[in-house]
Amino acid sequence: MRVVIELKRSADPAIVLNNLYRHTALQSSFSCNMVAILDGQPRLMGLKEILQAFLDFRCSVIERRARFKLSQALERKHIVEGIVVGLDNLDAVIQIIRETTNHAAATEALVKGFGLSEKQAEALLDITLRKLTSLERKKFVDEAKILSEEISKLNDLLSSKKLIFQLIQQEAADLKNKFSTPRRSLIDESVNSEVDDIDIIPNEEMLLILSEKGYVKRMNPNTFNLQHRGTIGKSVGKMRMNDTASDFIVCQTHDHVLYFSDKGIVYSARAYKIPESTRTATGTPLVQLLPLSDGERITSIIPVSEFGEDQYLVMLTVNGYIKKVPLNAFSSIRSSGIISIQLVPGDELKWVRRCGNDDLVALASQKGKVIVNSCDKIRPLGRNTRGAGAMKLKEGDKMAAMDIIPATADKMPESYSSRVRYRCPPWLLFIAENGIGKRVPLNAFRQSRFNVVGLVGYKLPEDCRLAAVFVAGLSLGDDGESDEQVVLVSQSGTVNRIKVKDISIQSRYARGVILMRLEHAGKIQSASLISAAAAEVAED
């Protein structure tokens, strides 16, 4: 019989096969009751007990065999010693034999004349004439020496348990070499009755794309080719009607993925739980992976490999509330999710980022205002809290972006001057809704406290809003320029991927350059920054 199981395009063959092993008779385990007769009684023994019983049996066999050989050697040595005595007194022995009338009298005369035992006298009388030569006498002397050495070894063996175990090991190796045959069964210690899915799935790099309507899909990083700025781009895939891509991240298949919703609830699942799909696939609804309530949307995705004690999650709401929570507070999340932040009516959680106390956090509003401050200035809070004010927003303004500046890249100026032009990395990469953008050096800003209006980061037209802000220049090439790439996603689902170094470095008040010609694609819906090392793609 041949059974063929055809899988959907999104199914993982390794997981399906593991489930077949686990829930069907394709692979079954059985128990073995090892009952053996020990000391004349049947006993149920485990592996250790039965091996110990086998060793005890082998020890007894070797001891009985050694005692038998020892008794034979002692008896033979006794006979040989009597023969040697007779040969040393050969003329007297012959004279006694010639003077006696029968066999019994000769035996008795030899016993009395040379102090021999009856067995030695019998053996001496049984010797043929050809063994009376001097050469034959030497053979008996040599045999006596050999027997003495053998007796000594046997006595040592019987008196040492270590020598007995060594002999057991040697005899087992000899049997293996003499009667070796290929093993008919396979013993695999790595296989048990319950194999987790994570054990059979390779830990590879992957891309996660989240849409505004709650669809997610997992793709290979090489799906998109590198393009130049100002091009139309390549579609991220078939989107649902009125749906757009909102997030684009790189992670590993074994990572814990934290899903933060607009209602302040966080869910957790392994990255490989998301079915892998092609670029043209629609994706999988998150409601099939997570227990989302009606109207609840996932707004941020955070991949976590390890829950470090010195790491935090910084959360920012649309209305400008910010708070910091230890990362290990999310190490154990129940299937129904847990609260990550308390929200006031009308507010929603939009951005979540990982950070350390030495890092900086950059906040930007839709009207281009920017605040850069240390993460250490944010007091760690519990999950079930609201947080503090991040920025004083003017009427009609809302938060637009948040990103983290690692401590290793912190290059804030000691004294701020608007007349000095800075161009060295890192930069703040600004992207506006109309497809224009620019790079502004980080040292063109100064650290300012939270809950203020902020500095001008991008002077935008009245009808335009800021779409995203990233910290660029953390990964540099040989030329000292950024080797990162930015992925722009329009409202129609069109994706454009360009090099960060192709984006001009300008001042905080400059207009910027065209990054993506939108035409009929609407506005920029979302943007993602990807390092060159994290996304190995082929040049067009």
Backbone CA Rg: 44 Å
- For the termini, the CA-CA separation is 49 Å
Oligomer: single chain
Instruction: Name the beta content range.
Output: 25-35%
Number of strands: 26
Question: What's the number of helices?
Answer: 8
**Mind summarizing the main beta sheet?**
4 strands, antiparallel
Shape: rod-shaped
Segments where pLDDT lies below 50 for 5+ residues? 231-235, 533-540
Order of the strands making up the biggest sheet: 6-3-4-9
Q: What structural class results from the helix and strand content?
A: alpha+beta
Average predicted local confidence, pLDDT: 83
Helix % is 10-25%
Throw out a few tags for this protein.
540 residues, alpha+beta, four-stranded antiparallel beta sheet, 8 helices, rod-shaped
Describe this structure in words.
The longest helix is centred in the first third of the chain and has 42 residues, at 47-88. This protein has 540 residues and is an alpha+beta fold. The chain is built from 8 helices and 26 strands. The strands form 7 sheets. It has a 4-stranded antiparallel sheet with strand order 6-3-4-9, with no helix packed on it. Strands 5-24-23-26 form a 4-stranded antiparallel sheet, with no helix packed on it. A 4-stranded antiparallel sheet has the order 10-7-8-13, with no helix packed on it. It starts with 12 loop residues before the first helix and ends in a 10-residue tail after the last strand. The protein is rod-shaped, with a radius of gyration of 44 Å.
